[in-house]
Description:
- By secondary structure, the chain is of the alpha/beta class.
- The protein is 41% helix and 16% strand.
- The chain has a 6-stranded parallel β-sheet.
- Helix 7 (149-160) packs across helix 8 (180-188) and helix 7 (149-160) crosses helix 11 (280-300).
- The longest helix has 21 residues, at 16-36.
- It is globular.
- Bound molecules: guanine.
- Residues 104-107, 129, 149-150, 178 line the site of guanine (GUN).
Amino acid sequence: MTESNQKEMNAILLDGKETSNAIKVEIAKEVEEITKSGRRAPHLAAILVGEDGASKTYVKNKELACQRVGFASTLLRLDATTSEEDVLAKIREINANDAIDGLIVQLPLPAHISENKVTQTIDPTKDVDGFHDVNVGKLTKGEDTFISATPFGIIQLLERYNIDTSGKHCVVVGRSNIVGRPMSILMSRNGNPGNCTVTVCHSRTQNLADFTRAADIVIVALGKPEFLTGDMVKPGATVIDVGISRVDADNERGYVLKGDVHFESCEKVASAITPVPGGVGPMTIIGLMQNTLKSYKLRHG
Length: 301
Ligand code: GUN
């Protein structure tokens, strides 16, 4: 961003790229110490079933992040027609492999494979996505666990920018198991960031803008490009954009990436806002790296 652009901005930019880079350096240092002492590096395995374009990009970015921090990574690519039982068998194999600390299965899965069976087959101690019922239960009770990567990343962004959350009204738009639901639990926890009064809005919410306009912190995880506009935001609020949709465009790639927030109108009203790309996305990846390091340490001391 140029200096002149910065002056035009009303809101502080919550820079996920810069913040995640700082955390990346911290992780890389720890990994260097581990390997210098003769121990193996942390190891993340990913299973990708099928050819979904966005999923391929996410998995590639996760592999690149592993390389940058010095982790080992394994990508198991399975054909879209792979049976559910074969996917579960691969998961059990990785569960039993002592040289692997974390396992993720990229979602969504082809329709014939049960997402629930897959996430519940992953060993909870290797579930660095935090999707297993054991880890969701621990999160709900406020116990130490693997917090799923996107909510974990958002929490750390709020923390590193010293956004005051205590006693504030946080509105979470979206109730998915991956983002909205765990995010709402974290923001209401007795801790920092946390201690918010939380409202969860979703597709059946009536007069949704009345809720977002009353929020000190709005977290939008709907998957609807540019859904939240400036008129739906209270002056001075913090706006967190979790969306990242591919919208058809007349360019080389054939699409542009759009968040759930209409940035231009919201940044004039908000006091702090995440950009897309470069906001929540890089924080999600770094959250996964942190969970993998945590898993390594839990098994290796
Ligand atoms: N698909 C979209 N987000 C995620 C994620 O955080 N983890 C996995 N495994 N799949 C996803």
